Amino acid sequence: ERLAWKTNGLLQGCSPETSVAMLRAAAVVLACALQGVHGCEVVECEEFNLISQDEPSGDSYYFGECTLPSGEVILVPDEEQARQYWSGDRLVLCINRVDATEAPAQKGRSIGSKPIWETDSSIQLAQVETTVKLARRFPPTRSLTPTESRSLIIIRVTYTDSEPSCSENCVISGMWGSERINYGQVQGSVSGLMSSSSYGVTTWPQADGLVVEVNMGVAVGTVDGCPYSTLASEVNTKLQERGIDPFSFIHREYFLPNNFGSCGWAGLANVGCSPPGSILNPGRCWSFIKDAYPTTRAHEFGHNLGLLHGGEGTYDYGDNTAVMGVARAWKGFVAPARWQIGWMGDSVVSEWSDTEEVVMLRTLSTLPSQLRTNEYLSAQAYCDACESFGVIGGYLWVSFRAPEDSSDYDADLPSNMKNKVFVHNLRAWNYPYGRGTERLAVLDVGGSYESPASEHAIVFCSFSNGIARVGLANGIAAKLRAEAACNGQTLPPLPPGMPIPRPPPTMPAGFLCEDNCGWSSDNDCDDGGAGAEYNACGYGLDCTDCGPRVAPSPPPSTNTASSPPPSPPPPPPPPPPSPSPPPPPSPPPPSPKPPPSPSPPPPPSPPPPSAM
């Protein structure tokens, strides 16, 4: 466009629009040629989006969407290719068209779960060969205001024989009213949830919202495939004909009938179209909803803000304690999601140190202004070796969730998830898209978690009055050190390579179990007993390495019931006094470990009693 402006008048007889289009095409062909790309199709993406397709089963698909100036939509099924660009970018792509069988293999999915291009054969797919970016239409300019207010148009799409399962009252009450989900305690709304989880930073005022209905004038059975984009274009045109501009709102929400075409998903949204703290550009964000749960709407708005899913186990969004998970009940956003999009500032997050410590965590719903000195909402540690869903690197997060009453959205958490310490992994990510979170552990008092990929350990010491004491440690013997911190103790630092000390187990009578030898706790059994590798310690004195030993049986008694024991002899006279003895010599250091004994001798029997 700048080139067209500078060369104004060179293309005589052409309108400015034609000049721009011709120069764009010439720049694209030249760029492709310079990069050595031949045989690819050159297309212009008037708008690009990263899209999340959310399946009811707990699976998901991420793909790119390129909308051409003609309105044609081409999908990029390769997630990693699609993640290179931001939602809203204007791109020129050199592509090769592919069919569904040539699309990249998806991760493990539930039976019956399919990406959208496998449910609609008319959808066009492409592999990107190279890309020339013409414009980043919405740069990451940060807003200077501490709070933000978002506008929303809610569009109920109806047909002559079908309508969305969420009525007009349902969409209004779910967004701004008071809805109870599945007989839960919380009577909430999507707007209330967003305001609560963001600590008042992000709001969706009802005064900035509009609810409309658009009837398509045909039966829903006439819908072929899953033409979500075509439908949105037709709906937008109908609204504009009525004098309503849907692009004047920051968020557009389309409610569809459950039997709309072959679409199997529950929700669909573009990702990272308007992260919190950025300049809010109208017309950028959209989502499609096919059920009546308000938490589905909150989930799709989370995608608009830049969040991906909250996973657990093998499911990409299987964390039932996360809004970005799959459970329908009310609950707040998890701590790492709040931090990623700027709702939770660094000042309320404890940075995990290299030494053991006890961190005081308030319940996650606590307002930052209510924190006292040395109290935090969460703790964080960088973990470059953590791996989750194929992503290496990220952050370990620790938080405490103890809802006090039904005004807390966490009050509808499952009963076994309340008053617990949560451990999450926030996968490594780049603005404006997250990579999602994974719930690693839920701890009760006394419970602990040790990261298998790093030397981090967490111990839930105790809690009272909405405050949890959590022991954190990093490095050698991290769990033992975190436990010691919970008890107000500090273990001496261990040099690298030193075996981790472990207290011997408590043994019942009749067993020997001590660690009283120069070779104790070196991962070799050195007490000379059965199975020992060495005979360097006394029998039963290397318990950590050898385990408990059966104590030798005492000698049989010589006394009988018919023969009482004789009286002891009189004591001998005391010895004459002697000068003070010299101090005993210092004990010699342990001798070098002898070579392994192929058949270690049994322990010697005690000597027979002396004759009386």
Overview of this protein structure:
By secondary structure, the chain is an alpha/beta fold. It is built from ten helices and 28 strands. It has helices at residues 2-6, 16-34, 79-82, 168-176, 190-197, 228-241, 294-304, 335-340, 478-486, 543-546; strands at residues 41-45, 47-54, 60-67, 73-76, 90-98, 124-135, 148-149, 152-158, 179-180, 187-188, 202-203, 209-215, 251-255, 267-270, 285-289, 310-311, 349-351, 357-362, 375-376, 378-388, 391-401, 420-427, 437-443, 448-450, 456-464, 467-474, 511-512, 549-550. The strands form six sheets. It has an eleven-stranded mixed sheet, with helices on both faces. Strands 16-23-22-21-20-17 form a six-stranded mixed sheet. The protein has a five-stranded mixed sheet with strand order 19-18-26-25-24. The model is unreliable at 1-12, 502-506, 557-565, 577-592 and 594-612 (pLDDT under 50).
